[in-house]
Write a structure and sequence with these properties.
It contains eleven helices and five strands; from the N terminus they run ααββααβααββααααα. With about 260 residues, the chain is α+β, with helices and mostly antiparallel strands.
């Protein structure tokens, strides 16, 4: 099988996959073929002018060691990482050589030096980052492709010179497929009844209408909506509809 045929076969599997977990497993295996054996993908639809929003509302996928993820991602340290800062304001692919350029300039902040120390301790030293183009100003997705231990940045550049176009294509299709799938934040997902109640609210139905349609009392409908608000960590039902829609948790086709 030729290289292009193998890529087409892989993308067909990605498009046919029924879950984010399956898509991610396919992607991890495919990127390892190019020498990138540790990946960190992040996506949010709650970006503000000054931040990526609450980390609990982000979709984070990775095969890095849990210890690294705790130090880098869950702690919030990622907000100070040079490649994350670059991804926040750019689109496309960027070599991690940018970090070498920053070091040489002598302009690294204390937080950026802390990121460097964590990365060195976990052998996260060479790679490429891709920042995806998104249709909403509130949305941002990016992925860090970390090269296998022992690979130096000049070797990564050689890999990119040969296969960078294919790698970007695969990552873009994977990103689009992931963001089209239902996903919940780190909090609990919505139940079928909570999703249905939110969908009817989104359709403009009154509480009495929803109760009649669902065969429930208005009090029970309100209970489902309250639990949905709690699951989504929002204050109002309107916010719950918006957030559930952003996460593709409502108005979806049941498998």
């Amino acid at each position: 099988m030729t290289g292009q045929a193998a890529i087409l076969q892989h993308l067909e599997k990605v498009l046919e996959a029924k879950s984010i977990e399956t898509i991610w497993a396919l992607h991890v295996d495919k990127m390892a073929e190019y020498g990138f054996d540790r990946l960190l993908y992040g996506f949010t639809r709650f970006r503000t002018a000054n931040s990526f929003g609450n980390v609990d509302d982000m979709l984070i996928l990775s095969n890095h060691a849990p210890e690294y993820l705790h130090e880098f991602a869950r702690s919030g340290l990622f907000n100070h990482a040079p490649m994350v800062k670059w991804a926040a304001t750019h689109e496309g692919a960027r070599s991690w050589r940018l970090i070498e350029e920053l070091i040489a300039s002598g302009r690294m902040t204390a937080e950026e030096r802390q990121v460097m120390e964590v990365n060195l301790r976990h052998c996260v030293t060479a790679g490429y980052s891709i920042s995806f183009r998104d249709v909403s100003v509130r949305a941002k997705g990016a992925i860090g492709l970390c090269a296998a231990r022992g690979l130096r940045q000049h070797q990564v550049e050689a890999i990119w010179q040969q296969s960078g176009h294919d790698i970007v294509l695969i990552n873009n299709v994977t990103h689009l497929r992931i963001t089209a799938m239902p996903f919940a934040s780190s909090r609990r997902p919505l139940t079928p009844r909570q999703r249905e109640a939110l969908e009817w609210v989104g359709d403009g139905k009154t509480m009495q209408d929803i109760a009649t349609i669902m065969g429930l009392t208005p009090a029970t409908v309100e209970k489902h909506l309250r639990l949905a608000r709690e699951a989504l960590d929002v204050d109002t039902t309107a916010q719950a509809v918006l957030k559930a829609s952003f996460q593709n948790q409502i108005f979806i086709v049941a498998e």
